[in-house]
Amino acid sequence: RAYEGDRVFKPRSIPMHQLETIRLELSELEAMRLCDLDGFDQEAAGHRMEISRGTVQRLLKSGREKVLQALLQSSALLIEEGAHHEDLYTDAG
Q1: Confidence (pTM)
Q2: Nearest one of 92, 91, 78 to 4, comparing CA atoms
Q3: In 3D, which of 37, 65, 43, 38 has the Cα closest to residue 55?
Q4: How many CB atoms lie within 10 A of CB 78?
Q5: pLDDT tens profile 21-58
Q6: Which domains does the chain have, with CATH numbers?
Q7: In terms of DSSP bridges, do strands 76-79 and 7-9 run parallel, antiparallel, or are they unpaired?
Q8: What is the distance between the alpha carbons of residues 60 and 4, in angstroms, rounded to a whole number?
Q9: CA 56 vs CA 31, 33, 68: distances in Å
């Protein structure tokens, strides 16, 4: 179930009720943003997120798997915004 503020990415022309929904946690998205988009290594990303490098590694693995699963299986990808949405796209994050 999607809540107000959540973002859903889905294949065009397939009704949402016919799709499997895969939930991407905000922490998984943040780890992917820092490492894959902003170019931080896992240790630096962990420092910015205030978590261990190992946790960043686990978040990257699970987040990437979910994104690939949604793309390859034509599933809906639900990004849970949560209370820290504003922090995601700021340099202060």
Answers
A1: 0.80
A2: 78
A3: 43
A4: 21
A5: 999 999 999 999 999 999 999 999 999 999 999 999 99
A6: 19-88 (1.10.10)
A7: antiparallel
A8: 25
A9: 6, 11, 18
